[in-house]
Amino acid sequence: MMRAAAFSPIMRFLLMSQPATQRVITALTAEGASVRFVGGCVRDILLQRPFRDIDLATPDRPERVQWLLERAGVRTVPIGHGTVTALVEGGETFEITSLRRDIVCNGRHAVIAYTEDWTEDAARRDFTMNALSADADGAIYDPYSGLSDLYRGHVRFVGSPMARIEEDVLRLLRYFRFHALYGRSAPNDAALAACRELAPRLASLSGERVRDELWKILLAPDPASILLLMRKLGILQYVLHEASHFERLRVLVWLEEQRGFPIEGIVSDPLRRLAAVLTVGERTAEAVATRLRLPLAESRRLRSLLVLEDVPTALTPAAAPGMTEGALRRALQTLGAVRFRDLTMMQWAARQAAMGDTAIDDKTDNRLLLQRLRTTTQWKNIPFPVRGKDVLALGLEPGPKVGMLLRALRQWWEETDYQANRKVLLARLAELVRKTARGSGKEGA
Ligand code: ATP
Ligand code: MG
C-alpha cells in the first residue's frame, strides 16, 4: 500500500466543499471502503485552477458501487470498463471507477481485471500527474513523482512512452493536450520520438475520440503553438491536415480572451477556433465534419464559417474593415448575428495575422471592427412582415410563383434598408403581381 506523499487540509477543504461530493463519499465509504479522488480534480486543485468534473476510484466493484449509491438515494448509470456515473440532484455528476489493471489494452477495447491494489491502478494511468490521487482527508498519494512533474510542468508518461501509446494511441493526442495545458518545459525527446513514430496509428481512432481531444486542445490557452508543434512533427496531418492558418488562430484566441478589448458575450469557442485554423472552402468543411463526426448543428456551423459564397465581400477575410451602416444591417439581417460575429472575428484575425501583428492596438481599423462586433450583441433580426398567404389573398394559386414573388419583394425590402412597412410592402406586392400577370399575358399572346 502506497504511503501518502503529503497531507493538505486545503486539499480536503476544496475537495469536500460541495454537499453533493460529501453525499457521494459518505455513500461510497459507508461499509468501510477507502475511496479516493483521482484525475483532473486532484491535479487542478493542486495548481489552484478550477476543475470541471470529479473522478473517484474505489476498491469496490461496480455492482457494489451502484448498490451503495442507490441505497443512499443517488441515481447511477454504469458506463462500462468498471466505471459508474453518479447523478446527484442539482445536476452534478461523478465518475466512480473500480480499481483495475489493463490486461490487454488495445485502444478502447481494453480487457480489464479488478484489483484492490492502488499501485496497479495508478500504473495504468497515462501521465504521472494523472496518477495522483487524494483521499477525503486531504492526503495525497503520488506513486510516480507526479507532484514534482506537475509543479515543474513536465508531462511525463507512466512507463515507456512507446509502450503506452502502442496500448492506446489516443494518449498521443492526450500528450499534446496536457502539454498545452500543464507543460512549462520543452516536451520530452523520447516522448516526442514515440509520438512521431506512432502517429500514423491515429488514423485508427474513431472520429468522436479525436474530436473530443481536439476540442480540448483547441480550448487550451495557446492552441496555435501546440498545433504548429504537432504539424512540425508530422503528427497533425493524421488528424487535421487541413489546418494551415496558425497565426490566424493565434489572433482569434487573443480576441476571444478579450485582452484589452472586452467584448460582451464572447467566449472561447472550439468550433470557431477550428474554423479559423482551416483553409476555407466547401471541401474542407465537408471532409472535416465527416471525419470528426460532428453533430449536425456543428457541421452546419462549420460550413457556415468556411463556405463564403453568400457572404458580402466586406466580411470576407480579404476586405477592409469599413462598412456602411446600411451594409452592416443587411449583413446582420441575412447572416444572423452569430455567423456575422464569427466571420467578423475570423476576418479580423486573418487581417491582423497577415500583417504579422498579433497584438491588437487602438488603430482606427480595430476600433471599427470592435464597434461592428459590439453591434452584434444588441442585434435583433427585423421580421419580414409579408407571408405566402398575403400573396394568395391577391388571387394567386399556390405554386413556385408565390415563392418567386416573395423573394423579389424581400429583395426590394432590403433595398429600402428594411424601412418599408407591411402596408408599403403589400402595395408593392400588388404591383409586382400585376406586372408578372402582364408579363405572362404577353408571353401567352
Ligand atoms: P479532464 O477531466 O480535465 O479532461 P482528466 O485527467 O480528469 O482531465 P479524464 O479523461 O476525465 O481526464 O480521465 C480521468 C483519469 O483517467 C485521467 O486523469 C487518467 O488518470 C485516466 N485516463 C483517462 N484516459 C486515459 C487513457 N487514454 N489512458 C490512460 N489513462 C487515462
Ligand atoms: Mg476528468
Structure in words:
There is one protein chain. The chain has 445 residues and is α+β, with helices and mostly antiparallel strands. 52% of the residues lie in helices and 10% in strands. It has helices at 9-15, 19-29, 40-46, 62-71, 118-123, 146-152, 161-167, 170-182, 189-198, 207-218, 223-232, 237-240, 246-256, 270-277, 282-291, 296-306, 325-335, 337-354, 364-378, 388-392, 400-415, 422-444, and strands at 4-7, 36-38, 54-58, 75-80, 83-88, 92-98, 100-104, 111-114, 133-135, 139-141. It has an eight-stranded mixed sheet. A two-stranded antiparallel sheet has the order 7-8. Strand 9 (133-135) and strand 10 form a beta hairpin. Helix 7 runs parallel beside helix 9. Bound molecules: adenosine-5'-triphosphate (ATP) and magnesium ion. Magnesium ion (MG) is lined by residues 39-40, 53, 55.
